[in-house]
Amino acid sequence: MRISRKWLSQYMDVSDLSIEEMADRITSAGLEVEGIERLAQGTNLVIGQVEECYPHPDSDHLNCTKVNVGDEILDIVCGAPNVAAGQKVIVALPGAKLPGGEIKKGKIRGQVSNGMICSLVELGVDPHSLSEEQKSGIEVLDQDAPVGNKDPFAYLGLDDEILEIGLTPNRSDCLAAFNMGLEAGAILKREVKLPEYQGAANVGGPTKLHVSSTTEKCPLFLGKVIGEITIKESPKWMKELLAASGMKSINNVVDISNIVMLETGQPMHFYDKDAIVNQEITVASGFDEDYVALDGVTYHLLPEDIVITNQSKPIGIAGIMGGDDSKILDTTKGLIIECAIFDHVSIRNTARRLNLATESSIRYQKGIEPLAASKALDRAVQLLIEYADAKMIEETVQYGDSGYTPISLSCTLKDINDRLGTDFNAEEVKDVFDRLHFEPEYEDGKYMVHIPSYRTDIEGKADLSEEVIRLLGYDRLPSTLPLMEMTEGKLNEKQKLIRTVRNLYCQLGLQDCLTYTLVSTQKKDNAILGLQDPIQLASPMSEERRWIRTSILPSLLDVVSYNHARTIKDVNVFELSNVAGTQGTRMHLAFVLSGLLQQTRWLQYELPSDFYTGKGLIETLFDHIGISAARVSFEANTEDVVHFHPYQSAKILIDKKCIGYLGKIHPQYAKETDCKDVIMAELDFDALVDIKKAKIKFAPVSKYPSVQRDLAFVIDRNMPVKKVVSIINKNARYNKEEIIRNVEVFDVYQGEHVAKDEKSIALSITFQSDTHTLKDEEINEVFENILQAIQTECDATLRS
């Protein structure tokens, strides 16, 4: 929000305050002044007249001039291409301090120069507000400019100071200069006098204008015909205020529409009356076509966009920009005024998609007070009559209503002091409500206040308390030490488990990642172990950030793809983050492996990132957190064969409940994500948290020697090796003691000397007792039982 000292001075007397004092007090009241800007800068300036101008004898682009500054004539060398005799100009005298430095007497290529003829750019004027001619040369003043005037900024209307105020989302009312003036008056304790314009639009004769809406996105539309106007230059005060707001003056009629928007916060649009066939305007949606807007650019309309139409043809993009075919021209004789309320979400979506951040769209997006449309129409009619010679005014036509209901709130002095911890008296509080124009009524310790229509942020007693402390000063709050219960600082069980997982996987060679929570529709559709009913943002930053993710892997694959594209092949990453759906939030654990997980070139050691490595990472994690291998199983994945390779992936089960998936990426999905031959997994981490973990038990290390026996079988290639291991463990007892301490599969072979439908597996079994040294006959008895069980249950053939 930009507002200038001159603008505030129209409503109140601030002559005794510096711009810095005003900024400090406004900031202290909760409206942060982010910067102070002066329209122009420079000292020791004067208006002069060029008496003579001739080429520099030693330069092909410089000119020597003699300039009358009122009390003397100065020799000045000037490099501007547009300097000429007879011009009125701005002269910086020796000693003048400009944004670019200090001006000094000197010689330029042998010619004396006692000052500088200035351009507005050299005086610090914003180049965006200047024409190309003004930017390329010195500023040539009108012939009525008084020679010798030592305040050229005042003559040009550049003697103004701008406050750049950062508004909080709940104070969009201050985008209107009238409301900001009332707010500043309350803060600075000044009497505010706004222009008297109420009811100015209540004049007019019969009209043929018809306005309507076929969409619910336009609850109110006001229209008014001004039959005759005069297009001419705007008054000086209007041009100065527009310039202070960063707008260029065009003509009196267009400037009035802009100044009314800045004053009331209500965007409005003026249409050339002759361009509106049959004086019929309808607000509609459902268009899917190209449209040329006021800026001459062609935009494509979509069905969800709100459009102003005439004869079923677009004449404006509602709340954003009018059309090129109905704009105000120098030849315009009459106009139709539009003031309306539009759905702010729809305006935001359209403006973002079309990349049109206009002053109108910004105000609609942030919210406009309910009565702003009628206020703006009154003010516009008043200014058109005064500055555009408006005649043949017709009555106002209205579609719908604003739905405004006045709000009155009550509270007691005790309520306010108890909430704030203060001891304000009744008069102080009433004075605050008076300054805010809340029209307070105080009786028996109770306030009844009537909230102005523009203060849409005031909803309850807490808001009233906030207004009181805001204006009386936060320094009035008493200083007290907080009273807090002593709590033990420690991690809960879930936090401990999170830390354990992160430490473990980092130790094993993976890198911890943190990817975006917001994802695109494509990533949402490719969720792995995803939650039901994903959440879509009402106003996403972009299409790439439209959904709250329900799965981590699609985002993590982006990390791998990014690194692969930069020739980094060994990418092993994991992420532990929340995912969310409409039913709630869950924490997931995911990892992606590619290349080598570990490598020591000196020892010629490599650990490839393959399926078995991924399986080992999961088994290591489960063992580390107290979930025994007996409770864990891996079954063939038949459920998600879109993202996982159908023959190289598995479901992960604990106590026969699926908690995740592991496997090689599907070739088609790998092509879509640019992630070739990666191993990936995603687990429901909250399910791991909820699973009962085994307690740690300590047992003495056996003092008796262990014995290892190897055996090899040929079995059906579809037989899972886990079944063989399970049979071995079931036959591990001898005299009620389990004497098998470990079973290790060290080879699986398919190929020569083995049938195509078979495979050979080799295992190593470790025998050990806690009570005695095992004898050969004891080991042999258990070993024979194992052999017989495997041959019977697995139809296995023992290899010699």
UniProtKB/TrEMBL annotation:
Its cofactor is Mg(2+). InterPro entries: aa-tRNA-synth_II/BPL/LPL, B3/B4_tRNA-bd, DNA-bd_dom_put_sf, Fdx_antiC-bd, Fdx_antiC-bd_sf, NA-bd_OB-fold, Phe-tRNA-ligase_IIc_bsu, Phe-tRNA-ligase_IIc_bsu_bact. Residues 404-479 form the B5 domain. It catalyses: tRNA(Phe) + L-phenylalanine + ATP = L-phenylalanyl-tRNA(Phe) + AMP + diphosphate + H(+). The keyword RNA-binding applies. Pfam families: B3_4, B5, FDX-ACB, tRNA_bind, tRNA_synthFbeta. Residues 39-152 form the TRNA-binding domain. Residues 702-799 form the FDX-ACB domain. Its EC number is 6.1.1.20. It is found in: Cytoplasm. GO terms for biological process: phenylalanyl-tRNA aminoacylation. Keywords: Aminoacyl-tRNA synthetase, ATP-binding, Cytoplasm, Ligase, Magnesium, Metal-binding, Nucleotide-binding, Protein biosynthesis, RNA-binding, tRNA-binding. The keyword Phosphoprotein does not apply. One of its GO terms (cellular component) is phenylalanine-tRNA ligase complex. It comes from the Bacteria. Binds 2 magnesium ions per tetramer. Belongs to the phenylalanyl-tRNA synthetase beta subunit family. Type 1 subfamily. Tetramer of two alpha and two beta subunits. This is Phenylalanine--tRNA ligase beta subunit. It comes from Faecalitalea cylindroides. The lineage of its organism: Bacteria, Bacillati, Bacillota, Erysipelotrichia, Erysipelotrichales.
